[in-house]
């Protein structure tokens, strides 16, 4: 008869698992509360104290830390070891099912004390897991593996060594991360660790010579269940995601959730959102209201997104926070595109896709990846990524809290004097700008990203780049229309005489303060009427006076609170 040792903090589902083992002819050993729980369910169980001959001691701190337990886990399947087990009355233990005290929950508890954290630090559990792993027993530390083990046992234990090795590896990883949590807490952050599980392999990294490249997710994510985590997106069609696809997807999630959070915080609603990205940064973005979708058009946000930069979106990636049906798919591929030429997209991510939409968007050789996750629909304040961000630097890594600041424009003096549509444009420009590579100046008009002047070393350069990109996109759209290669509905966003974008009454967002008035002058000269930036420059008063003299509304929040640097 085989023997299983079961000791769990969370009793959910453990009775069913134990019954399955008993049904297969197993004997159950357990301890304390778990033994009582199983006995009350009518499951035959032997208490650990009957094996060790000792009651729990030191306020239950020592119970399973005993040779008669660990000997049964560490003994090898050879005559000498089996003879010793028999000599000392030690049972051979074939399986350990353990979960650990919720140390991380206690660490995150705002009312936690050093004493409460220490008391929630499991010692016996991790030790049994490691003994079982070393002894090549069946070791279960993840509740999701319980049914897998039952099915494996019923199937006759196929590929036994590989199966046991995978369970042992997971147990070691869980224990290592558990110990790291304790170390980080006790050292007040002096020690920190990153623990991940490989979930996919990429053909290569950013460049073809960077091999191997893989996606890992936090091994604790199975517990926290981040519903928008990269591995939570379902690949409906297309090739596996590349390294660059994953980077773009991560950035689009950040941008989309920031737009949703900003709109929800300021207007109590999350509009329809369409994001187009190239090399991580948004090259197009649009928002529209719900009725567009119900009328079967669903296209207001898509139209605005595409017109942000028709050249850049070709070969780019798209994220929508609303379902993709046949009409939306056709819009993504053909709207504003030359007749007979499909717009090529690398990634389209959305809550859902209809069968017809999947067929329309698919590309040869799986070059268009279609990703579905219903949790992106109407994602707002509760969808912001709250986990710390890490970045490798030579010889180590940086860690910082995530990008979670969301402005409340109602607290600003000028907010009451601005129309709601202008305020929404400000939020859209902020959300795009603060999730784009700094330095950034972002221009938005009528719920549409006009341009994004990303990654510049100075504010004047960012302002000039934003204007240049807006003009260049308008000229490109005009050329297509002039040659009858695109729908005439792309007109109206530029001036035919000089092919410049119509930026009159547009809004601008700067991801930090203006050190001098020069960049502000560049924006004002092109018709920008509302600017959102931070304060903190020695020239703040000059910039305020310049805006007043030109009739430009200037909203400023403290740089220490609201600066929007991203991927610096």
UniProtKB/TrEMBL annotation:
PROSITE patterns reported in the protein's UniProt record: MGS
GO aspect biological process, one term: 'de novo' IMP biosynthetic process
UniProt keywords, alphabetically: Hydrolase, Multifunctional enzyme, Purine biosynthesis, Transferase
Pathway participation: Purine metabolism; IMP biosynthesis via de novo pathway; IMP from 5-formamido-1-(5-phospho-D-ribosyl)imidazole-4-carboxamide: step 1/1; Purine metabolism; IMP biosynthesis via de novo pathway; 5-formamido-1-(5-phospho-D-ribosyl)imidazole-4-carboxamide from 5-amino-1-(5-phospho-D-ribosyl)imidazole-4-carboxamide (10-formyl THF route): step 1/1
Source organism, top-level taxon: Bacteria
Gene Ontology MF terms in the entry: IMP cyclohydrolase activity; phosphoribosylaminoimidazolecarboxamide formyltransferase activity
Residue ranges of every copy of the MGS-like domain listed in the record: 1-143
Keyword Transferase appears in the UniProt entry: yes
Family under the similarity heading: Belongs to the PurH family.
Protein name in the entry: MGS-like domain-containing protein
Organism: Candidatus Nomurabacteria bacterium RIFCSPHIGHO2_02_FULL_42_19
